[in-house]
Amino acid sequence: MLVQRNDVGRVLFTYATLTFFALIFMIPLVYALYTSFLQLKDVDSIVPFRELTVDSYVRLWTSPAYSLPRWYWNTAVMTGIIIGGNLIFNTMAGYALSKLDFYGKRVIFFIILATLMIPYHIVLIPVYTTMATLGWLDTMRALTIPYMSQVLHIFLVRQFFLGVPNELLEASRLDGLSKIGAFFRIMLPLSGPALATMIILIFTGTWNSFMIPSTMVTRKEMFVLVVGLNSVKDQYFDRTNLIMAGVILTTLPVILLFLFLQKWYVQGVSTSGLKG
Asked: What is the DSSP string of 204-234?
C-alpha cells in the first residue's frame, strides 16, 4: 500500500510540475493573443470582454499594403513542396541506409552525418550563388528545391527503420516481394510515427523560416509569411496589437498541426534512435 501511495504521489508531483512549466511557457502566447484583440490605445491594459476587437486581423488580411493572403499562399506552397520532397527522398534514403546492402554504405552514411557539422550560414552562400546562376531567385524553385531532402531527417528515418525486424523483410522476399515492394508494402506502413515526427519538424522549421526566404526573395509578392510580417513590424513597430495579430497568424498553423499529430510525434521520438 505504501508503494502505491508513493507511486501516486510521484505521478501527481510530475503532472503538477509539468503543468506549472506549461503555464509559464504559455504566458507569451496568451499575451500575444490577448493583445491582438485590443485597440492600440488599450495595449498593456485590462479591458472588458465587450471591448475586444478583431480589427487587427481584418486589417492585416484585407489591406492591400500587406498582401497577407498571398504570403499565406506562398508559405503553404513552399512548406507543402518541401514536406512532400522530404517524405519521398528521406524515407528512400533511410531505407537504403538501414536495410539494403551495397558497397560503401557506411562511408556514405558517415559523409551524410558529417554535413550536419557544417553551419548552414556557410552553405547558404554557394546555394545562393547557384540559384542566381540558374536564374531562380525570386521564384518558388529557389525556396523549395534545395531543401527537399534534409540530412537530419534522413538520419531520423534510418534510425527508425533499424528498429524494424529484418525477419519481416526476409519473409516478404520469400513471398516474392522485391526490395521496392517491401519498402512500399512493409516499411512505409510501419513508419507512421517517424513520418509524423518528420512532418512536424519540417513544417515548423519551414513555416517559421526567415533567413532563407529573405535571402532568396526580394519581391514583395513572393514574400512568405514570416518575411512579410517582419516588413509590417518594421513599418508599424509602434502598433503592438497589429504585430501580435501577425504573431498569432504565424503560430496558429504550427500549433494545430502539432495537436493533430502529437500522438505519433511522441511515439516517433521515443522509438527513433534506439538502434545504431
From this structure: HHHHT--HHHHHH--SGGG--HHHHHHHHHH
Contacts of 23 (CB under 8 A, 6+ apart): none
pTM score, whole prediction: 0.83
Dig out the grid coordinates for 153 from the structure: 531527417
Q: How many CA atoms lie within 13 A of 147 on its CB side?
A: 25
Answer yes or no: is 91 within a domain.
yes
Q: Containing domain of residue 225, as a range?
A: 66-240+251-271
For residue 66, how many other CB atoms are within 10 A of its CB? 22
> Residue 32 falls within a domain, yes or no?
no
13 falls within a domain: no
Report yes or no on 6 lying in a domain: no
Per-residue CA distances from 260 to 54, 143, 184, 253, 257 (Å):
26, 26, 24, 11, 5
Q: What is the CATH number of the domain that holds 220?
A: 1.10.3720.10
In this predicted model, what pLDDT tens digit does every residue of 9-62 receive, in sequence order?
777 888 888 888 888 988 888 888 888 888 878 777 888 888 888 888 888 888
Whether the CB-CB separation of 202 and 48 falls below 8 Å is answered with no
Hey, what's the cell of 234?
A: 518594421
The grid coordinates listed for 45 are 491594459
Q: Which 3 state secondary structure label does DSSP give 70?
A: helix
Residue 224: which of 139, 160, 110, 145 has the closest Cα?
A: 139
Cα separation, 141 vs 127, whole angstroms: 12
Taking the C-alpha atoms of residue 72 and residue 66, their distance in angstroms, rounded to an integer, is: 11
Number of domains forming the structure of the chain? 1
Closest CA to 60 of 257, 225, 238: 225
Cell of 123: 552553405
